[in-house]
Structures are given as C-alpha cells and as structure tokens.
Specification:
It contains 14 helices and 5 strands. It has helices spanning 2-8, 22-25, 28-35, 39-53, 65-78, 93-107, 110-116, 122-136, 196-201, 204-210, 242-268, 281-300, 308-313, 346-359; strands at 141-151, 170-177, 183-191, 219-221, 232-233. Helix 4 packs across helix 5 (65-78), helix 5 crosses helix 6 and helix 8 (122-136) packs across helix 11 (242-268). The radius of gyration is 24 Å and the shape is elongated.
Length: 364
Amino acid sequence: MAGQQQQARVRQPREFRERRDVLNELSDTELIRRYRLDRAGIVFVTDLVRPVLLRPTATNKALTPEHKVLITLRYLATGKMQLCNGDDLGESQQTVSRVITETLDALSAPHILKRFIKFPANQDLQQKKTEFRDVAGFPEVVGVIDGTHIRIMRPRQFEAEYVNRKRYHSINVQVVFNAKYKITDLEAKWPGSVHDARILNESGLKRMFETRAVPAGCHLLGDSGYGNKTWLLTPYLRPQHEYQLAYNRAHKKTRSIVERGIGQWKRRFHVLHSEIRVTPPGKVCKIIFVCAMLHNICKDRNIQILLEGGEEHGQPQAEDNIQMAAGEENDDNGGHAEPLPAGQDRDGLRYRDEFVRRYFNVEL
C-alpha cells in the first residue's frame, strides 16, 4: 500500500509545446506584418537587452531572448495578449504576461530610451530646420508638438484624475516629432485630466529651451492649446490680414506632421489605439515609451508599416497610405477648445508678430 502511494507521488514529466522558429520560417514581409520589424530589426532589438533577458541555463526549456522579444512585439502590435499565446508562439497566458513585463522593463531602461528618443543637439539643429522648411517654407522650426490620449483601464487610485474631457480614462502624452516623423521628445506620465499647456509648462522640454540648452532662434510649432513663447509658435485664432493667413497656412501644413506622426505611431503599435488593459498606469507609461523607441528604430531602418488587414486582402498597406488625416488626432486632445490656454501673454503674442514681420516679409 505504501509503495503504491509513493509511486503515485512520483512527479510526472512536464510537457512542452513545440515552439516555432518564426524568425527563420517567416519572410521579412510576414515578420513586419506580425511583429512590425524584419528579422534583422528583431535581432537588433534583442541584442539591446540580451544580457538582461538571457537565462543562465536551459532548464525547463527556458525562453530565448529572441522569443521573449517576439512575444512582446506581438503584444505591442496587436494590443491583445491572447494572440501572443496562439499558434505562432505557443506559450501559456501566464508565461506571456510574465515575459511581456520582463521585456518591457528591459527595453524601457533609461540608457536605451535616451539612445533612441533624443532632441537634436546643436550640430543637428540646422539640418532639422532645413527639413522643416522644405515642408511648407516655414523657417526656424526644429520640432512640432502635440498631446494625444492613450486609453487605459480604470485605475484603482486617483481614478477621477485620469478621466479626460471625452469622459474616458487616459494618459495624456506630450510628443514632439521631427520632419522625418521620428519622435524626439516624449512626456508620458500625466493623467488624462491634465491640460496640454500644463504638461509643457512642467516639462524638461521647456527647461531646455528657456535655459538655452536649445539655442535662441529654434522653435516648436503647436496648436492653439498652447501659449505663444519665444520658442513656441501657434496659429492666429482669428486672422485678419493676408500675412496672417499665409503664416497660418504654412503653420498648419508644417504642424500636421505631428498629427500624421501620431497616426503612424498608433497604427504601427495597435496597443496604443485601444484600451491598454494593464495596471498600474506606470506600466502603461513603459509601454508608451517602448512603442516610441521601437517606432524610431523602424524609421532608422526604413521599415514600412504592413498591417495584417492588408495581408487578409492581399494589399499590404504602405506607411504613407495609412497616415491619419490632419486634425483627426487633435479631436482626441484635452482642452484645445479653450480660447486661450494658461500661460498665454502679450510678450508671446508680440514675439509672434515680430517673427511674421521678419520671415514673412510683411509690414504690420
């Protein structure tokens, strides 16, 4: 009897599902559709965090760093954890959740984010001005700024602070793009109820401009939710003369880069388009930063956006064909209906008039 009980207690060997070698099985086109990076890009991202993700032994068939990165990329591309444990990757829900957390922690390390999300330094500023001027003739611009809301689950703490003007819970993200649709600055920590102008006023970006870490003569373009400053220009709310209309036209066309850029970013990583179902909000912020970093890597490597919807219809959708129309993202931003934001003053308005006289060759 005792022998039978002892035999029953013998641990049964674990069964492991076969893992597909998708890096070698799928073409670059298929990899981009599913994971947003080609094979070389996936290996590049894996190498950034390989020492952190590598297990010292192969006990229990431990996941490789490549496999962990693939699981995380699949989640960011779709926003659905259940798709990560499907036929292509073959892991349990618990494993997927653990791996995503581990990989996001590794990829959101400050030294990695600063490598790929950085405001242009002095030697690069003139090139950025030239690239922006080529868009619509607007001079002295080094970035375009806007806010966008990322929907989140109802948080357990300070719930009311995360409700934005559209009445859903969100993180209000401040983002700056250059003329090549790369993200050069990102603030992702503020609850949805906080106005864009306040986020900018308390940001490191403002300190960079006002302490002359960014030299005088460099400007951001923002919408009317921001206040005019010597380094930030907004459109005329009620243009009265042709020079104001000309300024507004060039401003609108140039600033639309940030709206299209946000559209590209969210379509590349669909987790940003739907409600991010993780808690707490701090983990959501890591997801936002990692998506921004990966977006810039895609830009550096000239990887186009290919969506699985295009695969189903046999028509891969190139990046330029899925940009959001100018103004679509703006409808999602909090507080832009206010006539003048906090921080608007006569000095800022006067500076804008002087700027128009100098660069649009019109006597005021």
